[in-house]
Amino acid sequence: MPLIGGDLAAMAALSQRFAAAGSEFRTHADGITRRVAGALGEFGEEMARLDRDARALAEQIDEQQTRLRGQADATVWTGRHREAQDQYVEALGADIRGVRSSIEAFVDQAGSIVNGALTSTMTDMQSRVTATGTQAEATATSFGSAVEQQRAAFDQVMNG
Amino acid sequence: MSQELLGADLGHLEVLATAYESAGREVAQRADDLRGRLGTAVSSFQTTMARLQSEAGVLTMAMDDEVAAVANHASAVGWTGSNRHAFDGDLQRFVGIVRTGAAAIDDGIADLRGDVDRRFAPVLEEFGVTVRDAADGIDSNTSGMRTTITAQRDRLDEAANIGWSSA
Q1: ipTM, 2 decimals?
Q2: What is the pLDDT of residue A32?
Q3: Which residues on A lie below 8 Å from B35 (Cβ)?
Q4: How close A160 gets to chain B, by Cα (Å)?
Q5: Residue ranges for chain B with pLDDT beneath 70
Q6: Would you call A16 an interface residue with chain B, using a CB distance cutoff of 8 Å?
Q7: Do residue A18 and residue B70 have CB atoms under 8 angstroms apart?
């Protein structure tokens, strides 16, 4: 018949070590996840600043276009050659409006990437890490308790 | 019906061409600045993610070492009975949970880095091409406008200032 029993001091040390391992994992995992979330948050803030600046630029372009159009209309130049000039004015206006449209599309696309796919990936990662961290800590704590109960049971049987 | 006046305010035309040239270049430059800022933000984010992924790798290795040490510690503890076997089984479950969590961090960061590369690269590229094309168009049209103005001015000058002979 094999020996039944346990080294009570060693079991107590194991119980503590287990609890420490679970807690350490959760602390580090949460820390890295928070920093990833922080980096994504900073990136999102920079994107929001870019968005504000881009929309302000778009408004300035609108004002500038109105001013230039007024300036072009007020230019004294008659005759058929004026038509060539008007075509250049139209083309330049179209170039500038093209940049304006591109800016809007650009910030919309960039914003939707940050607020869509990246945030979704981040949220998914956070929930997985939080779940496993909680699980690891709970498991370690539970194991620690089980070891402690076992130690106490041995103590009671042998010494109580 | 009166005949329309034929002529031009050449100084005004020069000012207009300059205004368009200046406005167009400024818009193109500021748009390119926005693109540069996004590129910098993406690059900075990726650098941070690379560092955090490296730290996650260190955490994974540290936790592997820790659970191995706990397992060694457990195996060295004098403890017999069926509860000990249950404990060993649960220890393996704990190892699995830790590895799953560490992998979730590593995978999550890798997914973020991949998403950023995959999604922002074409946006930056497309915007860069648009801005460059617009800048080229602005240069070309401004140049055309100036050529037209110069030609008109020369011909007006010729028509208005040369060739008069009094009787």
Answers
A1: 0.73
A2: 87
A3: 106
A4: 19
A5: 1-8, 10, 163-167
A6: no
A7: yes
3-state secondary structure of A124: helix
**A124 reaches B (C-beta below 8 A):** yes
Q: How far is CA B19 from the centre of its chain?
A: 30
Count CB-CB contacts under 10 A for residue B9.
13
Residue B95, both tokens? 């190892």
Contact between A28 and B59 under an 8 Å Cβ cutoff? The reply is: yes
**pLDDT tens-place string over residues A101-127:** 888 888 888 888 888 888 888 888 888
Placement of tokens 């990662």 in the chain: A125
Question: Which amino acid, one-letter code, is at A30?
Answer: D
Judge contact between B131 and B28, C-beta under 8 A: yes
* Helix, strand counts (H, E) of chain A: 3, 0
Which of the residues A40, A121, A126, A151 would you substitute to probe the B interface, choosing the one with the greatest number of B C-beta atoms within 10 Å?
Answer: A121
Taking alpha carbons only, the member of B159, B151, B34 closest to residue A51 is B34
CB of B130 within 8 A of CB of A102?
yes
Query: Are B108 and A121 contacting, i.e. CB atoms less than 8 angstroms apart?
Result: yes
Nearest chain B Cα to A140, which residue?
A: B94
Q: Which residues of chain A have pLDDT under 50?
A: 1
Best B14, B125, B127 residue to mutate vs chain A (most A CBs within 10 Å):
B127
pTM of the complete model beyond 0.95: no
